[in-house]
Amino acid sequence: MNDKAPPLLAKIAALIGNDLAVALIINAHTTGRSGWLYIPRRPKPGKRLVSMIGMDAAQKLAGAFGGQSLEMPKCRAMYREQRNAEALRMAADGMSHRSIAEAVGLTDRQVRNVLAK
């Protein structure tokens, strides 16, 4: 995690790794979600948290935050950087602009702008 990361995100990343921490942030703030994430005391297979990050990481979070609801920071700049890097990787793999746009939640025009940078 970089120096700009909020303390909660830095602690989560130290427990489960940067990629899974960012996945939690993204999932907590997708359309229709409030940004809050409940961490159960005992994670169970098939539940939201385990589906997002796996049982091992969910158990680590439960050990630190079990029974709490966490307001996940938005971290828009960090999310944007990861999304753009993913779009560049997909373009390098030969995916079309439309396919990339659908995969990362952008318009075709936004994808062209990202790839032009």
For the termini, the CA-CA separation is 24 Å
- Estimate the global geometry from the Cα principal axes: elongated
How much is the average pLDDT?
88
**Percentage of residues in strands:** 5-15%
- Report the strand count: 2
Strand order of the largest sheet: 1-2
Count of domains: 2
**For the report, how would you describe the main beta sheet?**
2 strands, antiparallel
| Multimerization state | single chain
SS class: mainly alpha
Q: What string gives the helices and strands in order?
A: HHEHHEHHH
Unreliable spans are none
The helix count comes to 7
What value does the Rg take, in angstroms?
Answer: 16 Å
Question: Portion of residues in helices?
Answer: 55-70%
Describe the structure.
There is one protein chain. With 117 residues, the protein is mainly alpha-helical. It folds into 2 domains: 7-74, no CATH class; 77-116, no CATH class. Helices cover 62% and strands 7% of the residues. The chain is built from 7 helices and 2 strands, in the order ααβααβααα. The protein has helices spanning 7-16, 18-28, 48-53, 55-65, 76-92, 97-104, 108-116, and strands at residues 36-39, 68-71. It has a two-stranded antiparallel sheet. α1 packs across α2 and α6 (97-104) packs across α7.
